[in-house]
Amino acid sequence: xxxxxxxxxxxxxxxxxxxxxxxxxxxxxxxxxxxxxxxxxxxxxxxxxxxxxxxxxxxxxxxxxxxxxxxxxxxxxxxxxxxxxxxxxxxxxxxxxxxxxxxxxxxxxxxxxxxxxxxxxxxxxxxxxxxxxxxxxxxxxxxxxxxxxxxxxxxxxxxxxxxxxxxxxxxxxxxxxxxxxxxxxxxxxx
Length: 190
Prior knowledge:
It is a single chain. The protein is α+β, with helices and mostly antiparallel strands. It has four helices and twelve strands. It has helices spanning 12-23, 68-76, 89-95, 176-181; strands spanning 28-29, 31-37, 40-46, 49-54, 57-64, 78-83, 111-113, 119-121, 126-138, 141-153, 159-163, 166-170. It has a seven-stranded antiparallel sheet with strand order 3-2-6-9-10-5-4. Strands 1-11-12 form a three-stranded antiparallel sheet. The chain has a two-stranded antiparallel ribbon with strand order 7-8. The chain is globular.
């Protein structure tokens, strides 16, 4: 990459737009973060989920502090992670639809309450129930460290990835070339 590829322009709106364009180049697995209990539930689509440590098992997710899910995570100190399969683009779209709020996002999607009451989506590649260990507030977001309390894995191996502004279905058995195209090293999937 040459120096001519650097185009950072002053002005907060322009820098934010350029930063979003930059981050769209990073492929990320698609998950739904769910929060709340009873009639007070919400969820959101994220690609900001990552492993923090295997021993002890911890993960972290970055959530906008203005999101309704953030307030519920902060209040109940628990959240669900639902890693989406390749056939769940519609679920990702429903949970990222800004016109839908709270429990509306769950309409037509099978789910059940985990032991803490947090909603967990059925038919996901994996579901994880987490207790909040720490929330680190920085700028517009909260970095939430989750301690795993339970998880369930599906035998399905086809995942959903978000890259360059679009959802991409990854089928382990047929998409090895696609995985290479979006820069996921093949040594990690064989």
